[in-house]
Design brief:
The chain is an alpha/beta fold. Helices cover 36% and strands 19% of the residues. Helix 8 links the parallel strand 8 and strand 9.
């Protein structure tokens, strides 16, 4: 087993996740089996109770693990399926050590950070690295470990110490360290400054880890003089200083690393069993990157949510939209709209903000209402849903978005004026959305309906079923405490809002579709979590097709795109690879 540790310096949010994913991608393209672990030094057990403004969205895995959004990057880039134990937090480590101490496993010894916490970290990493994350069940050969935060943080010290010991435990030829650092370029001088990187590497080396590769994040390509300076002061050769400058698309990052000889360096440094030859999988990445740069037609989607001030709050949603826009050959424009700005209270308090929000909504080609929690902004979301329904605009509601679509329909079509979710109004006389029996109101963490669950299609004419390829069921990831009240189902269906997907028992409403509308779909699950660059999520794909005016033609052709819109793999072009068989994309069922 080979271990690649990715650390970061100077600032957090520097792009360690994308770089770790890209390293994994180029190694996987060489035919290796790659897994990934994300370490978060916070004391929370998992990311489930965070506000999205803290660390961005909460990503949900097949097993119901609520984890950091970087695991979403790993899954999308590497096309793997991770588990909750691939996200390691200080809270999980301390909890496991304290549980052992309570059981008496330490035989009366004093339990300390060194060796007990550091040993627990190393054991966790070694155990998790061997668990298969591919559909073929093969044990991984390479494990990419990303250490969150910045070198020098008090909270990440036990992890740095653990890896200092770990490099000797697994031997030098099986462990290497990539350090991601910032090379700022102040406007005043326009000169690339290497001092922050020098200080960051000096601190890392002082803690016992010496970086093998220094990846420099910069706004423009790294100058030779800056590269040589970093090489001289940071104890590495110039070839070990890698430039990762800002690029037009994240799909270009693996290609950027490949061009600078990262694979050949790993081959030599870690004695990897690969031959350095042109790799088919990276050809596909290059094609995606080139294609996204060539797009001329635009499609705009209004994302109506309550966490719109931080785009990371909806990372997976935006990625799923990008995957679908790329598949229909359109350049995506996401219009972030704070749902509270669409409400009448904003009209009185700040009329300019109110009218700007409505102008954004009305000028969009489609409307998306993603998941969320809490009452703030829900009325604004319902106004947006009402507008999309009446104006025959493509609409997709995800999780809370679907629940609010049901509430809006109940109020404005069925005439139930106080129809609401019991989450927002427990006294409503028409509770169209109710909390589930397994919901435990006393505990917040991990008490939702989480992870991969099966949805059975109940209609053969469902648009979404056709988009999924006519399958009888789909397995998608869930994260919710409330559900549509199944007892009121017939009232909606009589008026044309059909529940075309239900859970296995037929008790939970999973998918809604509105009759006589270009595309009005709501799903209780989160399809964005399983969207992939070359395999977009069908609900999002349907939204983009409808927004681009291509859905009727796509359905009429038996759910096939015109050759102009397909990738070389499926259009028989003269690209070096003529099939997708090597990519092993998971089946939707």
């Amino acid at each position: 087993m080979k271990y690649i540790l990715v650390t970061g310096g100077v600032i957090s949010g520097i792009g360690k996740g994308i770089i770790a994913s890209s390293v994994g991608t180029i190694l996987k393209s060489c035919g290796l089996h790659v897994t990934a672990i994300k370490i978060d030094p916070y004391i929370n057990i998992d990311a489930g109770t965070f506000s999205p403004y803290e660390h961005g969205e909460v990503f949900v895995l097949d097993d119901g693990g609520e984890v950091d959004l970087d695991l979403g990057n790993y899954e999308r880039f590497l096309d793997i399926r991770l588990t909750r134990d691939n996200n390691l937090t200080t809270g999980k480590i301390y909890q496991s050590v304290i549980n052992k101490e309570r059981r008496g496993d330490y035989l009366g010894k004093t339990v300390q950070v060194v060796p007990h916490i550091t040993d627990a970290i190393q054991e966790w990493v070694m155990k998790q690295a061997r668990i298969s994350v591919d559909d073929d069940g093969v044990e991984p050969q390479v494990c990419v470990i990303e250490l969150g935060g910045t070198v020098g943080d008090i909270e990440s010290m036990p992890f740095i110490e653990a890896f200092r010991q770990f490099q000797f435990k697994v031997k030098r030829e099986n462990f290497c360290n990539i350090h991601v650092s910032l090379v700022p370029q102040p406007n005043a001088t326009g000169e690339q400054k290497t001092k922050p990187t020098q200080n960051s590497v000096r601190e890392l080396r002082g803690l016992g880890l010496s970086p093998d590769l220094i990846m420099c994040r910069c706004s423009s390509p790294l100058e030779t003089s800056a590269k040589e300076k970093i090489s001289m002061f940071c104890h590495v050769e110039p070839t070990q200083v890698i430039c990762v400058h800002d690029v037009s698309s994240v799909y270009r990052v693996p290609l950027l690393l490949e061009d600078q000889g990262v694979v050949s360096y790993f081959c030599e440094r870690l004695s990897l069993p690969i031959d350095v030859k042109p790799r088919k999988m990276l050809t596909k990445w290059k094609e995606m990157a080139d294609r996204s740069a060539r797009l001329l037609e635009h499609v705009s989607i209004a994302l109506v949510g309550k966490y719109t001030k931080l785009s990371d709050s909806y990372t997976s949603v935006v990625k799923a939209l990008e995957h679908s826009a790329l598949a229909v050959n359109h350049k995506l424009e996401v219009k972030y709209i704070d749902s509270a700005d669409l409400e009448t209270t904003t009209q009185q308090a700040d009329p300019v903000k109110y009218h700007e929000a409505w102008q954004k909504l009305c000028s969009s080609h489609g409307v998306l209402v993603p998941g969320g929690f809490g009452v703030r902004g829900t009325e604004g979301k319902m106004h947006a849903i009402n507008w999309a329904r009446k104006q025959n605009k493509p609409f997709l509601g995800v999780c809370l978005g679907m629940q609010l679509a049901v509430c809006e329909f109940a109020r404005n079509v069925l005439g139930w004026e106080d129809a609401n979710s019991t989450e927002f109004n427990p006294e409503s006389t028409h509770p169209v959305v109710i909390d589930m029996p397994e919901h435990n109101p006393g505990e917040m963490g991990g008490t939702m309906r989480l992870g991969k669950r099966r949805t059975i299609f109940k209609s053969s004419t469902s648009v979404l079923r056709k988009l999924y390829g006519g399958v009888e069921f789909v397995d998608e990831r869930h994260r919710h405490r409330f559900e549509v009240n199944p007892e009121l189902k017939q009232h909606f269906e009589q008026k044309g809002l059909r529940f075309v997907g239900e859970d296995v028992e037929g008790e939970r409403m999973e998918i809604i579709e509105l009759d006589d509308h270009c595309y009005f779909v709501g799903v209780q699950y989160h399809p964005e979590f399983t969207s992939r660059p070359i395999k977009p999520s069908p609900p999002y794909f349907g939204l983009l097709l409808a927004a681009a005016g291509k859905l009727p033609g796509y359905l009429a052709k038996g759910c096939r795109l015109s050759p102009r819109d397909t990738y070389s793999g499926s259009s028989g072009s003269s690209s070096p690879e003529a099939d997708l068989s090597e990519l092993k994309f998971p089946s939707l069922s």
